[in-house]
Amino acid sequence: AQTVTQSQPEMSVQEAETVTLSCTYDTSENNYYLFWYKQPPSRQMILVIRQEAYKQQNATENRFSVNFQKAAKSFSLKISDSQLGDTAMYFCAFMKHGGSEKLVFGKGMKLTVNP
Amino acid sequence: DTGVSQNPRHKITKRGQNVTFRCDPISEHNRLYWYRQTLGQGPEFLTYFQNEAQLEKSRLLSDRFSAERPKGSFSTLEIQRTEQGDSAMYLCASSNRGRDTEAFFGQGTRLTVV
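Output (structure tokens, whole complex):
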């Protein structure tokens, strides 16, 4: 079974600064995806960024980038130029390719961006 | 299409009562998932539909839980004889097999059992 661990329950950062959220996972699979989802207060979860395990290049989406270390089973999210709207719960998630492709989530991390 | 829609948004029920939640996925999505999220935890997988077929159920889904997706469109999740431990946020997500890995989530139904 796959597990996802987010060891930092909460972080805060000043607006415009850079912050890194950590995530580790455990799996014996070779073909999988990793995701970061954002859940703003009282709003639905939305996808921030995804990484396909077979791709060595780290994914980037505007201010969001990941550091994917496959051998270490580490998948951190870097948010540059933090904005007030980045305040949310952030969940790291694993998905095995094939079958149901259900998501396995970590416990989440509460990020607060301060003005 | 405005995304995944879930109703009701909030439900308060007395222990022992039955409740039913509805999820309307994005119209062209053939996959539908139910997850449960308790306070301080990430969502946990409950069950998965490919079109109208329920193809996987978690061990979390006790006999009191049943889910349907008639005609492969909307889905319902029913909890019979609710218990206080059923209090949680119930999330629905949909995706399109073979086209994209992204799952789109609804806003959830928050269940409180008193």
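The mean pLDDT of chain B is 93.
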